[in-house]
Amino acid sequence: MVSGMDVVLEARGLWKIYRTRGHQVVALRGVSLEVERGSISTLLGQNGAGKTTFIRIAATQLLPTRGTVRVLGYDVVEEVWEVRERIAVVPQEARPLLFPSPMEYVTTLLVMRGMTWAEARARAREALEDMEVPREKWDKSTWSLSGGMRRRVILAAVLAMDADVVFLDEPSIGLDPLARRGLWSKISRLREQGKTVLLTTHYMEEAEVLSDRVFLIHGGRVHRVGSPRELVDSLPWRYKVEVTSECPRVGELRGSYRVVGESPPYTIYAPSHGEAGELLETLTRVGCRASSSPVDLEDVFILTVGERISPEAGEGGDDTWAEAW
Q1: Higher pLDDT, 271 or 92
Q2: How far apart are CA 301 and CA 279, in angstroms?
């Protein structure tokens, strides 16, 4: 844990066990973590790692089996309404499709939180402008909006609510790369507004671009914690050679280098740029298809938990199929 910081979310010894078809499924195993005020923190891991379960407990939507979570000093079990008044939540599959237009969506949510209609309309206009939702779309059907624009509308509602803590569960899932990058700039704006953001993702680049702090979660446990740079710098290797074809020479290297993969793609880790270059030249000379690059956050994940995150890893929540126990 980090001392001397202003903690707005604190989890201690958090467990969550589900019961499904007579079996027990452990989603969280004694998770302890802290989130600093005014930061973007990320739970990074595969589907089933426990990310969505943690978000739902912290957002007062799910009871823990054991342990505690406090948000802004309030216990999420004992002081539910104090927490709910101060947070905003964007679930993984959130879509503003029950409302005819973005303006109605944002305005209605603000009225539900206690604002007058006039105040809500004014705040909605300001938030939609800030999230760069074009004026000509404010009164258009939400069905006509792209996926990226719908996410902007949802973030506009979050911004207008002026919540202290924002939970985003896989905010860019299903978006194309261009729309995803556009959304990242909007999420960063929440931090600029002084909000604290806790998001989940299985996209390594998303975690690297957005995060002040990453919690690498796997199998219901937090395995590594730090900024993206700190996590990458903690590796003893600086470069990697990725081999994407069958290559008998890889087997000969296993005794001298850290090699990940039993079949293509293989990843061979090297301590320096020069050594990676020599490896690359050796492999390509004998016909192996390979490339070299610096290590990144994906390598931290692979070397920590021993597996990659598959492209479809973020589809669905951790507990959509289980009965809470």
Answers
A1: 271
A2: 23
SS3 per residue for the chain: CCCCCCEEEEEEEEEEEEEECCEEEEEEEEEEEEEECCCEEEEECCCCCCHHHHHHHHCCCCCCCEEEEEECCEECCCCHHHHHCCEEEECCCCCCCCCCCHHHHHHHHHHHCCCCHHHHHHHHHHHHHHCCCCHHHCCCCHHHCCHHHHHHHHHHHHHHHCCCEEEEECCCCCCCHHHHHHHHHHHHHHHHCCCEEEEEECCHHHHHHHCCEEEEEECCEEEEEECHHHHHHCCCCCEEEEECCCCCHHHHHCCCCEEECCCCCEEEEECCHHHHHHHHHHHHHCCCCEEEEECCHHHHHHHHHCCCCCCCCCCCCCCCCCEEC
Q: Bridge partners of 66?
A: 15
pLDDT tens for 156-194 read: 888 888 899 999 998 888 778 888 888 899 899 889 989
Q: State the Cα–Cα distance between residues 42 and 197, nearest whole angstrom.
A: 8
How confident is the model over 88-99, as a mean pLDDT?
A: 70
Indicate the domain borders of the chain. 7-232, 236-294
Angstrom CA distances, 111 to 82, 121, 153, stand at: 18, 9, 16
Distance CA 239, CA 275 (A): 9
Each residue of 194-222: pLDDT tens digit? 999 999 999 999 999 999 999 999 999 99
Q: Of the CATH numbers 3.30.565.10, 3.40.1130.10, 3.90.650.10, 3.40.50.300, which one belongs to the domain with range 7-232?
A: 3.40.50.300
Q: How far apart are the first and last CA of the chain?
A: 29
Same fold, 7-232 and 236-294: no
Radius of gyration (C-alpha) of the chain in whole angstroms: 22
Statement: residue 94 has pLDDT above 80: no
Which CATH entry fits the domain spanning 236-294: 3.30.1340, 3.30.70, 2.60.40, 2.40.50?
3.30.70
